[in-house]
Amino acid sequence: MADIKTILCIEDDLFIGEMYARSLRQAGYTVDLIPDGQKGLEAALAKTYDLILLDILLPEKFGTEILKQLRGGKDLVPHSRILILTNFSQDEESRIAMQNKADGYLIKADITPRKLIDIIKSLQKVEP
Amino acid sequence: MDHYYGARKGSDMAIANHEYFDHYKRSAITLIVLSQIIGACLAGGAAMFAWQTLSVNPLNAFTLGLVVLIAVNIVFGFVLFAVVSKPFKLLAQAVAHVSKDPVVTPPPMLDAVRYEHSGLKALIQTVYELAISSGKNVDEPNAQANPEPTGIYQQIAADLPCGLIALGKNGAILYANHIAPVKVTSEGGQTTTLQFEQNNSLTTWLADCEANKVRDTHLWQRVADHLPGEEGRRIFDVVGYYQKESPAGVAAILVAFDRTTMYESDQEDMDFIALAAHELRGPITVIRGYLDVIKNDMTTKFTPDEQELFDRLQVSSERLAGYVNNILNVSRYDRKQFITHLAEDNLVDIIKTLIPDLALRARTQRRKLTFSIPQGLPNIAADRSSLGEVVTNLVDNAIKYSHQDGEVLISAAVKDNAFVEVTVKDGGIGIPESVVGGLFNKFYRSHRSKQSVGGTGLGLYICKAIVESHGGSIWVRSHEGEGSTFGFTVPIYSTVAAKLQAGDNQNKDITQRSEGWIKNHAMYRR
Predict the structure, then answer these.
(1) Is the pTM of this model over 0.90?
(2) Which among A122, A120, A123 has a CA at the least distance from the CA of A30?
(3) Looking at CA atoms only, how far is residue B510 from chain A in angstroms?
(4) ipTM passes above 0.90
(5) Of A52-56, B97-101, B261-265, B451-455, which range is least confident?
(6) Which helix (H) or strand (E) holds A97?
């Protein structure tokens, strides 16, 4: 899989979204920040991203639903990796259901932008 | 079989079973006395008749009387035997009939009114009822036992306000009432939809009973029949009764009480905690994130004083994040939603990831943090993020309850060839003996709450839960005024590898995948 260069960040919290976008851009990535679930899904399908950072509690469309549409049946984004980034503690079953469709699942409060960049770098080394 | 039941009503009016023998004895004695009187009269009459009317000499007349007496006694003897032994004959017939004798014995005919009056009918019916209640089928002695309840029993089973499932020896469902959480399989059989925990399932219980028990009762709490969010999800408390060699072929009976309403309000509490945590974590993310950004961009410009303040901000934000995790973990643990998933890991690697945070915490609070961890410790079976939380909580406490410039020592060693033991030692205020016992309880903060220190009182409680879910144990040794040592053990991976891989397919899959799976929290933990 190609090196990660372009990133779609679907995140409705402006502070958090801009924080990630700022640090990721500084680290050399191209970042599109979209604060809305429905528009985020459209963007993910319209353009080829190397990585999608996906929040769960989003306006218009939940991250769980976006993931289901992207990877529920046929994989519509085979060229992308997906990292779930959330602060919402889901029950185990729903979390495992997401696990099978995504490449990672992170609690935002437990990472900093710097750690996120480390994780993205390590993600690149791992074949999905 | 109906005529046995049908006649029962009439016989209730007659003789009860416990009165039967006295009644029978009275009849027999009357019969014997009467027969003797009749015999004596006949013999005497014959002797008198021969002597007076036929003018036989008295000796010969007496001899004739004696002969008549013997003859009459023999005849009466046979008649008496037949009458007196008749109940035993019928009783023996009935017993042979219900005991599935290889020679098929017809049931005794009891329709005569005298049997009803004598109480014999009732007695024999009792034999039948005992045979039926012990599971033997009277009408079809050679047929297989039929566990399908009939008549009134079926009605009762169907109308029970709780789920009722009868399981055969192989665990197959023999009967389930309409409330029971079961579904029809593609093969046409039935299977329960209850979602038991992997290590406390119906199958493991049945296997354990089969191997070790004659009778057993088991309770499962909070067992759901569907995934959350699925239509018609119910949550049950389930009681299982096991009986080996049960006559009807029913190995176990499950009674499932629907507790959905009660547990759903728990679920709402959980949802509240999850949402509250989500709210708290938003600002924490931003604070930690921007502090990290500032650290990157700005700290070269800070004065030493500013640097100190900045570090304190960072430490506080990290502790705050840790406490929110403690609250969530405790909430999950109390709802039996907390499971650690163990994978092969290395203690040194785990601790290395914690060092920057721990060192900063120690430095800003003027404690000396020392590590004494030998090289070459064997790999352990660990849930990395959970175990990290244990170490962080213990170090956090050691810092809290020790003196300025005091040392906090983290060491590790192999214990009993099966565990790696980690200890966190401080030379702080220590814990009085009287309160050590309750230290791992929820909200237990003992005398320390008088000190000017924060904390939720949840830290040690969740540490204990995490360590025990690893199969290890946690302990404390302390002298008041001299400091405390907390220690915990986790199993060496090689000692549990086979068990981990054999016991749980899902876990095996996770273990295999864990290398390629990125996570910073207990993805697989509840």
Answers:
(1) no
(2) A120
(3) 11
(4) no
(5) B451-455
(6) helix A92-99
